[in-house]
């Protein structure tokens, strides 16, 4: 067993710049197993190899799409079996959102050092369980931590919300994220923020968001709610952790919670 396995996505230009520092850190001690995914490589092979060293922590240096790819492969192939290691998303892209969501903002090289220290000293109090969003489109199922609209076209949406409520209609803006779960046994759910199509609805929703009323019954135009599934028609594309996904119909649902390592205090 090794303390940390580092997956560096060298297909990302920003990560390629960081590689000399990452290699220097990994070569200085024997506590980090380093796997570089280059233009000819793939994440599935990387994770299968990493699983052989049985890491206490899986660290990822790459953009948001790299984290999405890792989550997708871990669900589909289960390279670590039933007990995967916690994931430390260290960033490395040009505009990363996922590391901020997971409490590891912008700290690729320094974050690797901290992850190694925590792996040696114990991970208690730094683990969080987050529900990924599973997106099925065009016969493919992919996982990520945030789905949002891209472009100006409105979409047709149907969602099953809290207390059996149904939401449907055309929407100009959509953001869906997975909830933070208290434990892996907790029922996974999604949180949806949606703005109805039309300028009046958008203006009303913006005012509701500013005053903290988004999602309340009297706040028209915007919906903020927990939900179990979202069906979308007519989307030319959405963004899953920054990567474009497309299909005539899409279904969003919660996946099983994944454990992440929070580096920020």
TrEMBL record:
<dbReference type="InterPro" id="IPR017438">
    <property type="entry name" value="ATP-NAD_kinase_N"/>
</dbReference>
<protein>
    <recommendedName>
        <fullName>DAGKc domain-containing protein</fullName>
    </recommendedName>
</protein>
<dbReference type="InterPro" id="IPR016064">
    <property type="entry name" value="NAD/diacylglycerol_kinase_sf"/>
</dbReference>
């Amino acid at each position: 067993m090794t303390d940390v396995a580092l997956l560096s996505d060298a297909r990302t230009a920003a990560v390629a710049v960081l590689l000399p520092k990452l290699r220097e850190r990994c070569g200085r001690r024997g506590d980090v197993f380093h796997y570089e995914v280059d233009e000819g490589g793939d994440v599935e092979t990387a994770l299968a190899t990493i699983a052989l060293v049985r890491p206490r922590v899986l660290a990822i240096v790459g953009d948001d799409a790299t984290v999405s790819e890792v989550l997708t492969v871990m669900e589909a192939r289960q390279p670590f079996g039933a007990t995967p290691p916690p994931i430390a998303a260290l960033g490395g892209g040009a505009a990363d959102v996922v590391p901020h969501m997971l409490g590891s903002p912008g700290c690729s090289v320094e974050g690797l050092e901290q992850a190694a220290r925590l792996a040696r000293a114990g991970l208690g109090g730094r683990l969080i369980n987050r529900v990924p969003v599973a997106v099925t489109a065009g016969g493919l199922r992919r996982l990520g931590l945030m789905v949002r609209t891209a472009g100006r076209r409105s979409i047709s949406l149907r969602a099953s919300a809290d207390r059996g409520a149904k939401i449907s209609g055309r929407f100009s803006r959509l953001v869906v994220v997975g909830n933070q779960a208290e434990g892996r046994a907790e029922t996974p759910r999604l949180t949806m923020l949606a703005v109805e199509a039309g300028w009046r609805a958008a203006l009303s929703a913006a005012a509701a968001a500013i005053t903290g009323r988004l999602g309340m019954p009297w706040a028209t135009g915007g919906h903020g709610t927990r939900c179990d599934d979202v069906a979308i028609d007519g989307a030319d594309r959405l963004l899953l952790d920054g990567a474009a996904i497309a299909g005539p119909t899409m279904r969003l649902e919660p996946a099983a919670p994944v454990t992440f390592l929070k580096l920020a205090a």
